[in-house]
Write a structure and sequence with these properties.
The chain is mainly β and 185 residues long. It is 4% helix and 26% strand. A hairpin with a 4-residue loop joins β5 and β6. It starts with 13 loop residues before the first strand and ends with a helix.
C-alpha cells in the first residue's frame, strides 16, 4: 500500500475582509456591524472579539464569497450609530477602514408595522390582593404560609388527555373556571 501526498489546490472561492478602526474611545470599533450586499443577499457580521468564556478572536472580519466575483456594496454601521456605504471592486483583499476618514451619515432604523399576534381579552376576574393574614399566628406548626399560595382563579381540565389512564379525568367541564372557594369545599 503506497501513501500518496496530497497537493492542496487553491479553490476558486473568493473572500473579502475588513479591519475597522473606530474613533479614539473605541479604537477597534467593537460593536460595529458590516453588511455585504451581493445580488439580493446580505452577508452580515458584527465586530465582537469574544465568543465564550475566556476566549478572544481577531478583530478582522472575513466574509467567504463562494463563487461570487463582485459585490454590490458594503455598509458599515459604526458603534455610534453612523453608517458608511462603500463601493469595493477588488475582492480577495482585507481592507482597513477608518471611521474618522469616512463620509458618515446617521443610521436610522426603519421599523415596520407588524400586526400583533395576541389581543387583550377583557375579563371579569377580580384582581388578586394579598391580605395581612399570617397562618403561623393560628397554626404554629404548619411548614409554610398556605393562605398565600395559588391564584385566585385557575383553569381546570385544560389537559384533556390520558392523565391517570382515563380520558377527561377531572370532574369538571372542559375549559371551565373555578375559584379557590369553590374547590375548598
Amino acid at each position: 500500500m503506497s501513501l500518496k501526498t496530497r497537493v492542496e489546490k487553491k479553490n476558486k472561492n473568493g473572500f473579502i475582509g475588513f479591519k475597522l478602526k473606530g474613533l479614539p474611545q473605541n479604537i477597534n470599533a467593537v460593536g460595529a456591524k458590516i453588511n455585504v450586499f451581493i445580488q439580493g443577499q446580505i452577508l452580515s457580521k458584527e465586530v465582537i472579539p469574544a465568543r465564550g468564556f475566556q476566549s478572544s478572536v481577531d478583530y478582522k472580519q472575513i466574509f467567504g464569497l463562494g463563487q461570487f466575483k463582485k459585490i454590490d456594496s458594503v455598509q458599515v454601521i459604526w458603534p455610534n450609530l453612523t453608517q458608511s456605504i462603500l463601493k469595493i471592486q477588488k475582492l480577495d483583499t482585507v481592507y482597513t477602514i477608518e471611521q474618522a476618514q469616512q463620509i458618515v451619515k446617521p443610521f436610522v432604523v426603519v421599523q415596520e408595522k407588524i400586526a400583533p399576534l395576541f389581543e387583550e381579552v377583557k375579563s371579569n376576574f377580580e384582581k388578586h390582593a394579598e391580605d395581612d393574614h399570617v397562618d403561623f399566628y393560628a397554626e404554629r406548626i404548619i411548614p409554610r404560609i398556605l393562605s398565600q399560595e395559588g391564584p385566585k382563579a385557575f383553569p381546570l381540565n385544560v389537559y384533556f388527555g390520558t392523565l391517570a389512564g382515563g380520558l377527561g379525568c377531572f370532574p369538571f367541564d372542559y375549559g371551565s373556571y373555578h375559584s379557590q372557594s369553590d374547590s375548598q369545599g
